[in-house]
Amino acid sequence: MTSWTEELTRARLHVVSGKGGTGKTTVAAALALALATGGRRVLLVEVEGRQGIAQLFDRPPLPYSEERIAAAPGGGEVHALAVDAEAALLEYLAMFYNLGFAGRTLRKMGAIEFATTLAPGLRDVLLTGKVKECVNRTGPDGRHLYDAVVLDAPPTGRVVKFLDVTKAMADLAKVGPIKGQSEGVVRLLHSGDTAVHLVALLEEMPVRETLDAVAELDAADLRPGAVLVNRVQPERLPARSIPVAAEGRVDGSRVRDGLASAGLDLDEFTLEGLVDETVEHAIRVRSQQEAMELLRESDLPTIDLPELTDGVDVAALYELAEVLVAAGVR
Amino acid sequence: MTGAFSRLEFDPLLDDPDTRVLVCCGSGGVGKTTTAAALALRAAERGRRVVVLTIDPARRLAQSLGLRELDNHPREVVVEGFEPKGELFAMMLDMRRTFDDMVLTHAGRDRADQILSNPFYQTISSSFSGTQEYMAMEKLGQLVAQDEWDLIVVDTPPSRSALDFLDAPQRLSTVLDGKFIRMLSAPARASGRGLMKIVGTGFSLFTRAVSTIVGGQLLQDASTFVQAFDSMFGGFRERAQRTYELLRSPGTGFVVVAAAEPDALREASYFVERLSAEGMPLCGLVANRTHPVLAGDLPAAKALAAADDLDRSGEAPLAAAVLRLHADRVAVADREKRLLARFTRAHPGVPLVGVPALPADVHDLDGLREIGRRLAGE
């Protein structure tokens, strides 16, 4: 299994997608921390108005501005931005049409909602446009302000549509300032500066969806990056016992003798419970292995992230970031 | 489980002829569709004539119900060896077709054609974020009106927030009926009412900017659409209102489904509060896919200490593995209990049932039946 490649090291925009419920936001945050490790400055961006980053870092909702939210080992720092399509549209109108003043009235009338929800693609053009601006922004010294930008993107079902600004642009702007802006976005997203990582769980459906997404990304000439496999459960049983145990055959008397040699004398009921737990564990591990096998078809670098039994808190994000760094993420 | 909580009892609920509609809601990925299907199956096997409306079922689940295509009509579930005491029908929602049917019913033939071919309508009916929720409600209203089933079990769309199911229809009609769209369709009339004056030059500048961005054609289509749709609006809103009333009626019950995870339980909390604010009947919470400890008498610390002993001696690797996986399971179960206890403390009156996870995916009626048993606490 390959891990982080040289090519991925060169990417500056890391897009993170995945089937809903796979822990996309958690993994994106851990990836931002990992990339910031060793003294770099990384921006973590969300675009779906969920305030998932704020919840994850246990902070009040993020305003539409870039805030420093975490320090990374070795002097790095992670900043965060929640991009809001309405705010981006108002910013855009203010920039090109000097219309900032009318924003509140227009919002009250539902005009902003109308424009961002109904015009196909407009929302995505605005959101990706803002992301591009962050990636390209330079500081006073002429160097990029952020060493890397991590985008917590829409789920796999929608991500290609979201990133395929070329198409949205063809539908919308044939002239005008948005055209130039979209062309810049298209160049960035299709260049080696961008990698689209997919978060997967080792279950059949999420893996199939991951493989479909890889094919879709390839077809749209977007670069799949790594598959980040989340919530991998530890395999406790000896490898040869797994297939047998998954079929429900666990040698209860052997378990009992083993336990007895460790001084544990358990009643029949507890022993049965242990055997049942073992069978369930084996079935899960087996389906996890089958999913992993299926995932190999994608031929992408794969990094396993462990299941965190205590749940995800800020400390857990650092733990996941360490795993990513150990797998070569930089 | 710490703290007092009442147990959600499904069998009395499913058997009660006064239970006419069960709505399964919750955030995405918690197992709403499977829960809805399992409840419907159990109700049918206990003698009721049931239809389950699924929104976006996983392929295997759809196949287990014999649903091969999305044809927008309930079909009786015919599977070899399946002979329920009652009857089970299932359907998948086709949101576009439901919307089209509604237009055809409400508008005259000519106007319907005009609306259906409008590009703006096509955008709204296929990609507006609230359409799926709106159409799920519409379909539910139709199924109730057909009066062919004595129990309807409804799955809700896979939105990130459970509240979307209640809010989205409102949002759709806000957009369709909003001031802005009215102004687009009749700028002269709007200016007559003085709206133009309020916004002043900002508005015309804005329409110009918007048409630069979204294209003048879209505004044109929107305007045509609104004019053609105008006469339908009344019926449209009225219908939505009726379905909303139905959701508040005594024959309806909401089943909130959540995984024992902080995000899903937070959504469930919002939803429970909202239902109570709206006076909508809540049956209770399904804590889905829990991992209760099956060997409860063996504490994790003791198991780990024994596993360490065994590892040192190198004997009995199987027993050592069993002890470690047991300790993992205790940790997961403790965390789940902690999270559920927190929910119960915040919502002491909400009945709750934990549904232990099956180790593998459900892909047939036997699997659904097993989940039904777990839902009923068997």
Automatic annotation (TrEMBL), chain A:
Chain ranges of the ArsA/GET3 Anion-transporting ATPase-like domain: 14-180
Coiled-coil regions listed in the entry: none
SUPFAM superfamilies, alphabetized: P-loop containing nucleoside triphosphate hydrolases
Organism superkingdom: Bacteria
Pfam families documented for this protein: ArsA_ATPase
InterPro entries given in the database record: ArsA/GET3_ATPase-like (IPR025723), ATPase_ArsA/GET3 (IPR016300), P-loop_NTPase (IPR027417)
MF (Gene Ontology): ATP binding; ATP hydrolysis activity
Official protein name in the record: Anion-transporting ATPase, ArsA/GET3 family
TrEMBL record, chain B:
A molecular-function term among this protein's GO annotations: ATP binding
Domain ArsA/GET3 Anion-transporting ATPase-like span(s) in chain numbering: 19-290
Pfam families: ArsA_ATPase
UniProt protein name: Anion-transporting ATPase, ArsA/GET3 family
Organism: Lentzea fradiae
